[in-house]
Amino acid sequence: MYGLTDMQPYGNVATRAWTFRTVGYGHSPYVWADIISQLIINGYDYVLSIEHEDPIMSVEEGFQKACQTLKSVNIYDKPADMWWA
């Protein structure tokens, strides 16, 4: 009912229009894979920072799950030469 500019306190999780969620619990791992792919395509190869503000998950659990999600979709190796092109 309040929309994107919901000004209710963050503690009102049940009635807010939106709330912060741990990586992988708001956007799916597929979305995060697309985000990381676009970062690499556009030349970014540096730090991924995690900010935890999920009101329904402990900091430790949220951090661990965010790390698991990002590790599962991160691209670690440089591509081989495009021998077929």
Radius of gyration, whole Å: 17 Å
Shape: elongated
Please tell me the overall pLDDT. Answer: 91
Give the terminus-to-terminus CA distance.
52 Å
**Uncertain residue ranges:** none
The H/E string reads: HH
Number of helices: 2
Q: What proportion of the residues form beta strands (DSSP E)?
A: under 5%
How many beta-strand segments?
0
Helix content: 25-40%
Q: Kindly name the structural category.
A: mainly alpha
Largest sheet: none
InterPro entries: Xyl_isomerase-like_sf (IPR036237)
Organism: Staphylococcus schleiferi
Protein name: IolE protein -like protein
Task: For this entry, give a set of tags.
single chain, 85 residues
Structure description:
There is one protein chain. The longest helix is centred in the last third of the chain and has 15 residues, at 59-73. The protein is built from 2 helices and no strands. Helix 1 packs across helix 2 (59-73). The chain is elongated, with a radius of gyration of 17 Å. The mean pLDDT is 91. It has a domain at 17-73. The protein has helices at residues 29-41, 59-73. It starts with 28 loop residues before the first helix and ends in a 12-residue tail after the last helix. It has 85 residues and is mainly α.
